[in-house]
Amino acid sequence: MERDGRAVDAGRGELVTIGEFARLSRLSAKALRRYDELGLLRPALVDPVNGYRYYDPAQAEGARLVAWLRRIGMPLSRIGRVVQLDPAAAAVEIRAYWARVEVETAARRDLAMYLVDHLSAEGVEMTKRVPENAAFGIRCAALTDTGAVRTANQDTAFAGARLLAVADGFGEAGAEASAAAIEALKPTARGAGGGVLPAADLLNALEDAADAASRAVRDAVSPYDAPDGSGTTLTAMVWTGSRLGLVHIGDSRAYLLRGGEMFRITHDDSLVQAMIDDGSLSPEEAASHPQRSLLLKALVGAAQSAPVAVACRPEVRLQEVMAGDRYLLCSDGLSAVVDEADLRAAVIATDDPEEAVRRLVALARAAGGPDNVACVVADVVVR
What we know:
Layout: E1 7-8, E2 15-17, H1 18-25, H2 29-37, E3 45-46, E4 53-55, H3 60-71, H4 76-82, H5 87-120, E5 136-145, E6 155-159, E7 163-170, H6 174-192, H7 199-221, E8 231-232, E9 234-239, E10 244-249, E11 253-258, E12 261-264, H8 271-277, H9 283-286, E13 299-300, H10 306-311, E14 315-319, E15 326-330, H11 332-335, H12 340-348, H13 353-366, E16 373-382
Antiparallel strand pairs: 1-2, 2-4, 3-4, 5-16, 6-7, 7-8, 7-9, 8-13, 9-10, 10-14, 11-12, 11-15, 15-16
Helix pairs in contact: 6-7, 12-13
């Protein structure tokens, strides 16, 4: 054990023992030993004979930063990266981490509210809101485009009788990641088409589908050199014949056109969206923010710590439908360069989903086409 003495010179200036440094930094000696083992906070000197640890009092500020980051729940692996940064970069990293925490908290809140509503209904199924004799179907189209700048297309789009999906891949294996995420949802979509599922059963199926998509992306990018640098967003809807189940992660979007009004029904998992939410950034400022492409959540490779992997689970929820609803799903290659008024105009300009997706891609290209584009347009129709 280290001595609980005062200062030593040790040829390096005045150092203090671990006991004294624990008092200076408000950390326990046990925590300091743990942080030393993890490389988060190395002593200034370790006696080669007896192994006693000595610290420079100037290290107290760094030690307190580690303690504060632990208090907000930051994983030790991420703390190790933060403490190596300069103050400005560390501030950005902490903001990004906390924004991710708030996104996850919001998702848990939404699920809690659903459970409250579901249990308060005393077993009355949501499907009773839909007339028993109603027979709905989906009429849809999908289109992707490389854009005017990129040389490869990493976006994937799919539109079928039971599944609508867009995924925006990134990194070396982005194309493989986006394709794998959507492919993993197809078995769930086929299974959901066998009849009207109770709400709880559909949510369970969506949870399983989200897990399958996460695993599929990890498998798809694992052969590459930097699997943690590749991944994809995912916005998808599973159609059961009476309702839609939404699976969402990242900054691809889903919009609903109902009664002539268009509503965004997903929330971007991005740093700039979190800054808009907390009032530190306006939507106009977000459009030109240098970190507008920084995602807080995405489906990524396996080389992530366990806390990050858990945090990157897609959101799932149910979406009620009405005859005449039109849905637009798109990657940010469209939504980031075309404002919502123009999106709405293109979506309502034609009754044909095929023509609608062509108009949307043309809008993105007219805006410069700086990124790949993926979009799906789908109508809820009475059979």
